[in-house]
Amino acid sequence: MSNFNNLADMVINGNFMGAKDLTQTLVDKGIAPLEIINQGLMAGMNVVGVRFKAGDMFVPEVMMSAKAMSSGIEILKPFMADSDMPSAGKVLIGTVKGDLHDIGKKLVVMMLESAGFDIIDLGVDIDPTAFVNAVKEHKPQVVGLSALLTTTMVAMRDTVEALKEEGLRDTVKIVVGGAPISQSFADDIGADGYAPDAAAATDLCRGLIG
Ligand code: B1M
């Protein structure tokens, strides 16, 4: 079995110590972080998604898979961020209210950091008011909203509305993303852009700031 298949299996089986060690081994061999993410960690998480949907995996197992994926991402983080780079801009990001999914957001954060952006990551389950307060405090150029559940998409709209009500809407660009999000939804709630993945999110933020 190839190293990538092995890593994918470790994510599927929730073997977080194994995933951490193998990610480190692949880094030591000089494999590019993005290759490790796409061919190993993400490949495993894609299988988890299919099995979860089919009812072949349950929440506790999926949580172990998420932990395994995160342990790999933590190893890769320092290899992707270049602290000597001048700041490309400030991005405030969070997963919206009611939504606890953070793996995709973490990947977006990692890619943005590696592209030289300063990131304020509010975490998960972030209330619209908390976004408003954080915008007042940190004055970012971009606000990034992530949602993985169809039921929490409405919280994106609420967050955009809350920023409008506080007179902050025109001070920031709003970028949205996550599996159920589309360009038409982004247009509908009045966001400035939609990105289907972490690389696209980075390009979008560059374009919106630049
Ligand atoms: Co959840 N879950 N989950 N889950 N979970 C999904 C999303 C689901 C599609 C699974 C399924 O049924 N097939 C389904 C949602 C169905 C729907 O709404 N239509 C679902 C469900 C139902 C649930 C629960 C309700 C289950 C339950 O309790 N009965 C529950 C909800 C909890 C809550 O949030 N309130 C729940 C819980 C969980 C876990 C806690 C077990 C775990 C999350 C752990 C964690 O994140 N720390 C989990 C997981 C892991 C998943 C799946 C399997 C994988 C998600 C993931 O991490 N993907 C997921 C199935 C799937 O997506 N196939 C599923 C990998 C990640 C890299 O991709 O997040 O899409 P993704 O991010 C991408 C892009 O979307 C984009 O870039 C990222 C990188 O390329 N992107 C952005 C994301 N955010 C962005 C922001 C941007 C731009 C791009 O700009 C700001």
Automatic annotation (TrEMBL):
CDD domains the UniProt entry points to: corrinoid_protein_B12-BD (cd02070)
Entry keyword Cell cycle: no
A Pfam family reported for this protein in Swiss-Prot or TrEMBL: B12-binding
GO CC, one annotated term: cytosol
Limits of the B12-binding N-terminal domain: 1-88
One of the GO biological process terms: methanogenesis
Residue span, B12-binding domain: 88-210
GO MF assignments: cobalamin binding; cobalt ion binding; methionine synthase activity
Listed NCBIfam families: pyl_corrinoid
Similarity remark: Belongs to the methylamine corrinoid protein family.
Protein name listed in UniProt: Methyltransferase cognate corrinoid protein
Organism: Desulfosporosinus orientis (strain ATCC 19365 / DSM 765 / NCIMB 8382 / VKM B-1628 / Singapore I)
